[in-house]
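Entry: Multifunctional fusion protein
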Amino acid sequence: MKNLIATSLALGVLAIGSLGMTPFRGTARAAFAERIPNRESLRTAVFAGGCFWCTEADFEKIPGVVGVISGYTGGQTPDPGYEEVCSGQTGHMEAVQVWYDPEKVSYSFLLDWFWRHVDPTDDGGSFVDRGGQYASAIFYQDEQQRQLAEESKSRLEDSGILKSPVVTPILPLGTFYEAEAYHQGYHERNSTRYRSYRCSSGRDAFLRNVWGDKKDSMEPVLGTNPAKPSQEELRCRLTPLQFKVTQEEGTEPPFDNEYWDNHAPGIYVDRVSGEPLFSSTHKFDSGTGWPSFTQPLEKENITTHEDRKLLSVRTEVRSRQGDNHLGHVFDDGPNPTGMRYCINSAALRFIPKEDLEAEGYGDYAPLFE
């Protein structure tokens, strides 16, 4: 049914071309991304969720999403057209490129929203549209997106919300090709046809049945945190050094920072998010002038990423929920782990053992008994 509707719209676009106006085809389609304002301050995320008319409309509802572009990705045919993709021979999937403001919405929330607007248990298509070109997928652009996507998928699998296994793949993003002009904003320009298609496709019935009122909730449902505080808010909350370290991946001076020589018992939490990161029980004097630990207090609160900024390959350490830069980890530490987590004091807040209960970290008090 979707193909029939789209074909009639395509004929209208071809008619425009016959009058001397160029329909969006080939490289001309790149004009859609160029229309998005303040692109240099935005980030992008790419998702496939079946019919891109629906996926585009769903993501446009999110505050902080500046623009959504329908297109094709994941296949082998360069610059494919709609009919080619529909044939199932190009390997491409209908997908959307989401342009969002990271100060207003996080990638983690976009993932949470994605799961609530697709059928991730169907690898043969989506709802009434059949074929691999209509299946769901998450396309990551870097290691951080991949990790967050894998974690989000695991939370969905562990939630027990779905009755069947989650089959949505998490794939590296290749080239994203913008779709023809008549597909962009279809839900707004052809609202009657769009509503008819969406209703009869079975999409909304499935989503209501699974998620109920949570489908369009602006609060995360699968255990993710709300959007990260804006850069403006963080500049107010943090000192210039704390902001430079946590938000701009800076490094504080050695031997001239708050905790390098701190020997008091207690735990170290993320300066911004408060998530528990390290314990004094794992702290040691590395001679480097920065707080050093043999292991994290809570491994699930730490993420690692490849860092090539200083003409060498290092492993960056970030907090998982806060997504704040902490420092780096090296394999030259003492036993029993052989690891050295070299962390900036400016990224941490120390909570003495006697304050753990009052600060809401009482579960860690037994570590110091």
